[in-house]
Structure formats: structure tokens, C-alpha cells
Automatic annotation (TrEMBL):
Pfam families registered for this protein in UniProt: CofD
NCBIfam families found in the cross-reference section: CofD_related (TIGR01826)
The protein's name in its UniProt record: Putative gluconeogenesis factor
Similarity field: Belongs to the heat shock protein 70 family. Belongs to the gluconeogenesis factor family.
Its biological purpose: Required for morphogenesis under gluconeogenic growth conditions.
Keyword terms, alphabetized: Cytoplasm
InterPro entries recorded: CofD, CofD-like_dom_sf, Gluconeogen_factor, Heat_shock_70_CS
Gene: yvcK
Superkingdom of this protein's organism: Bacteria
Annotated localization: Cytoplasm
The keyword Cytoplasm is annotated on this UniProt entry: yes
Length: 338
């Protein structure tokens, strides 16, 4: 949908400012729908991924993992779909380096070397790709995700943490290249949070896509200080090695506990039944079962519960319906006293 054909909605003469914080495959779905509804979007994206093409590139040339950033750029771009297809293309070559890599990941890695930092690289690429909005890496250096499990053991790195299949007690991030330096979000990230009408968390993996952003201390402080409504988009399915046996209330409690305050104001919960035997568990092998509902416990964690059919089924996968989720987010943005 072209920019001129989008539904134009304004708050006091301006587009609603929506900040979305997260990572993973679910985030671009929501961003694309918000983009089509003319929201002023800032996407704050995790830089702690250590798997797949992103992880290999990170190991080879020591840059921030580009995969989540690439997908977010595409979701907000007004470029021709044919150009975006090139950017998203993955090599099928059997070459030991290029096989499986997306062209966009390599471009982001190259620009990071040219600009000497990921933040400026992403801003350069945003201009090249006609991105409508802002895409901000949460930090200007690669971060390592660390976890302590309920049994007292620890692990470092997304892959190691989820692969342990243990109940996670808490997570935190460290600077990959300089472990003694506290990770810091750059000034535009903090300003976007302070200027937001609504701040959206998710959708995405709770411990490895959402919380890594919230564990950057100055971002966390800004989130706690901001007057914006905080909306959490609850996952539809539990995730292997992260949220096994979790209810929707468990998800929110983990976020609030890590923030040290009951900061989640509103939760969007899918109420539609996931059909039995629909999900292809071989293709989507990180998913387990639908997230259970505990509305009594939820009421103790947040003030507003929006339970609706947010389900989209395609490709034998279970996803959020981006249009329905975006509509609820914008409805909250236009509330006078949210």
C-alpha cells in the first residue's frame, strides 16, 4: 500500500508516535501494519542475536548481528517490492561462507565497517531504502545475552540459553567486545521513548528478543520515566527453552520483575483457539503449546486486558494478525488519558 493511500489519523495535527521494542520474526508483521496506518514509527531492535546468518557474520567480522534489523527495515520501506526481494534474497550457493546468507545482512555488515558503527550504518541504509520511520539498534555495539537459571547455573548467548531447556530466572546483557563496559542506548533511542504516545513490547521471544532491550540500563530508566502507555503483545505459543508452561500472566510478570516495577499497562491476548494438528512442528520447531490464560493473575500485573481474536494462520504456522493488533495499538494511542 502506497504512503498516499494509507489511512491518515492524527493527534493534535500530527501522526501518533509509536515506539516498538523487540526483535525476531513477529516484529516486522506488526510494524508493517502500523506503517500502513500512517503511524510515526520508531523500531528499537535487539543486537544480541547469535544464531543463523546473523551469528555467522558476527563471528566472522565482529559486527552487530544484522538479521532482525534487516527485516525491520523491509517492513517500513517504501521501496519497490522487487528491490526488497533482492535485499531479502538468501544465497543457495554451497560456498562455505555465502550459503544461507541474506544479501541484506551482508550490506548491513559492509555499511557498519564503512561507517565504523551500526547506528550510523542503519540510518544510511534507511535513507537508501526509503524507510518511513526510524530504525534504531538498541546499542551501538554487539551485546551478549546472559542468563541465570532457577538451578543457579548460568549461560551466555541466545543459542546456549534456549538450548539449555532450563527455567530462566533472570537475564542481563553485557558489551561483547568490552565486558566491563555497561551497554548504553544512544541518545535518539532515549528521546524516542520519551516522546512516544505508546510504547509497544513484542511480539517476540520473551527472554531473547524483548528483555535484551529492556536490560540496557539507560533505556530501562527512560521506559520507567516515560508517560507513554506501555502495551505488551503476548505471544500466542510457548517457546522451547524460554517460556515452557507459561501463562499470559507469567509473561507479564517476568517483564515487570526485570523492570523492577509494574510498568506494563495493557496486554493484548489472543483468545482464538489454535486448531489442533495445524502447526508444522518440524518447520516451527521452537514452538510448543498455546499460551494458557490466567486473567485473575493478569489483573495483578497490568491494568488493562484486551482479549480478542488476533490469530492468523498460514503456511502451517501460527502468527499474529498484524492489522488487528495495529488497530488496537492505534486505538490506545488516540485515547486522551492513556
Amino acid at each position: 500500500m502506497s504512503r498516499t493511500n494509507r489511512i491518515v489519523r492524527v493527534i493534535k495535527g500530527r501522526r501518533p508516535k509509536i515506539v516498538v521494542i523487540g526483535g525476531g520474526t513477529g516484529l516486522p508483521v506488526i510494524l508493517k501494519s502500523l506503517h500502513q496506518q500512517n503511524a510515526d514509527i520508531t523500531a528499537i531492535v535487539t543486537v544480541a542475536d547469535d544464531g543463523g546468518s546473523s551469528g555467522i557474520i558476527r563471528d566472522y567480522i565482529n559486527v552487530v548481528p544484522p538479521g532482525d534489523i534487516r527485516n525491520v527495515l523491509v517492513s517500513l520501506s517504501d521501496m519497490s517490492p522487487s528491490y526488497l526481494d533482492i535485499f531479502q534474497y538468501r544465497f543457495e550457493s554451497k560456498d562455505s561462507f555465502f550459503a544461507g546468507h541474506a544479501i541484506g545482512n551482508l550490506i548491513i555488515a559492509a555499511l557498519t565497517e564503512m561507517d565504523n558503527n551500526i547506528f550510523d550504518a542503519v540510518q544510511t541504509l534507511s535513507q537508501m531504502m526509503a524507510v518511513d520511520g526510524h530504525v534504531y539498534p538498541v546499542a551501538n555495539e554487539p551485546l551478549t545475552l546472559n542468563a541465570e537459571f532457577e538451578d543457579g547455573t548460568t549461560a551466555a548467548g541466545e543459542t546456549e540459553i534456549s538450548g539449555a531447556r532450563k527455567q530462566i530466572k533472570r537475564v542481563w546483557v553485557t558489551n561483547t567486545n568490552n565486558p566491563n563496559e555497561q551497554p548504553v542506548a544512544v541518545a535518539p533511542v532515549i528521546q524516542a521513548i520519551m516522546d512516544a504516545d505508546v510504547i509497544v513490547l513484542g511480539p517476540g521471544s520473551l527472554f531473547t528478543s524483548i528483555l535484551p532491550n529492556l536490560m540496557v540500563k539507560n533505556l530501562q530508566a527512560a521506559l520507567l520515566k516515560s508517560s507513554a502507555e506501555v502495551i505488551y503483545i503476548c505471544n500466542i505459543m510457548t517457546q522451547k527453552g524460554e517460556t515452557e508452561h507459561f501463562s499470559d500472566a507469567d509473561h507479564v510478570k517476568i517483564i515487570n520483575d526485570h523492570l523492577g516495577a509494574k510498568r506494563v499497562d495493557t496486554i493484548l491476548v489472543n483468545a482464538e483457539h489454535v486448531p489442533d494438528n495445524y502447526l508444522d512442528y518440524q518447520k516451527y520447531n521452537e514452538y510448543l503449546t498455546p499460551v494458557s490464560h490466567d486473567f485473575t493473575a493478569l489483573q495483578q500485573q497490568c491494568t488493562r486486558i484486551i482479549s480478542n481474536d488476533f490469530l492468523s494462520l498460514h503456511d502451517h504456522g501460527v502468527f499474529h494478525d498484524g492489522t488487528k493488533v495495529a488497530r488496537e495499538i492505534l486505538n490506545r494511542a488516540f485515547q486522551p488519558n492513556h
